[in-house]
Structure to design on (133 residues):
């Protein structure tokens, strides 16, 4: 497996950025009307997905990185729950819901694969450089 040097190279982070761009465009075009609390929550959870991947990576240790990846997965679940609220309030059409839902599921799968890789890796992260196998 190639060495990742920047969090921007992580596929799950790239997909989370894509998710944020879609949600941001929906918010900016008034898709969520004036439901400011839902806007704040859905934008916050979407941002949390990508931000926790980045923060965990920058901690330079696999254990901490995995912890942040699990938080990111949790934010995916929170985001999906908020999608249902947006769908039920008719802020989203079924097709829009499905696109966003599918993207979050793709991100969760990528996160889980990354977690599994880190769990099985003999390398512990660059901050443990002298202790790596």
């Amino acid at each position: 497996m190639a060495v990742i040097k920047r969090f921007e190279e992580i596929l799950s982070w790239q997909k989370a950025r894509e998710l944020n761009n879609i949600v941001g465009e929906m918010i900016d075009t008034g898709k969520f009307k004036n439901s400011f609390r839902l806007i704040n929550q859905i934008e916050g959870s979407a941002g949390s997905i990508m931000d926790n991947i980045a923060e965990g990576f920058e901690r330079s240790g696999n254990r901490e990185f995995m912890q942040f990846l699990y938080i990111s997965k949790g934010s995916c679940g929170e985001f999906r729950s908020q999608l249902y609220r947006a769908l039920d309030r008719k802020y989203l059409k079924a097709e829009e819901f499905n696109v966003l839902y599918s993207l979050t599921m793709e991100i969760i799968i990528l996160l889980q694969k990354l977690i599994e890789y880190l769990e099985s890796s003999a390398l512990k992260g660059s901050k443990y450089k002298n202790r790596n196998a």
